[in-house]
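Record type: monomer structure entry
Structure origin: computed from sequence
Chain ID: A
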Amino acid sequence: MTWRLGESGGGPELQKRHGGILEELPRARAGVHRPPGVEMVQVRCGWCTRQRFECPSCGRSCRDLFELSTGWQCRLCGRLRYRSKREWDTNKQALANRLRVELGGQPGALSPLPPRPKTVKAARRYDRKVWRIRRLELGGLRDTAHVIRSAERFLKECERG
């Protein structure tokens, strides 16, 4: 079996940031494909055993290995992240807007939230979503403040030289 850049290996897509461009990585799954030079280990799982790869970098047993420029590595050694984690980091305002709409409100940090429900279960759910909205919007404000400070420093340096 030959793996090429851009082929998906099934399961949650893992991607790596390389030069600002996101690219899919070729994946080897235990029991399906064995990359050359990688050892297989038997891992006890309850009453049965499963075949896993032994990561050439850290020695950890793992189900998937990814082909990087440095060779085959596990997700932790390659510093790969799931797409959902990356969305959490980069798109805070969009997630907050989606939660606002789920609560029955309008998108936008300045729009008011709908009133709190009266039933205990619904009120608890509402409180969790409001807490998450506040946290996301605060994180977005911090990111915006950081960008503004960086732009101000850049403009000051341009004026000097």
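Annotation 1: The chain has three helices and nine strands.
Annotation 2: The first strand starts at residue 14 and ends at 18.
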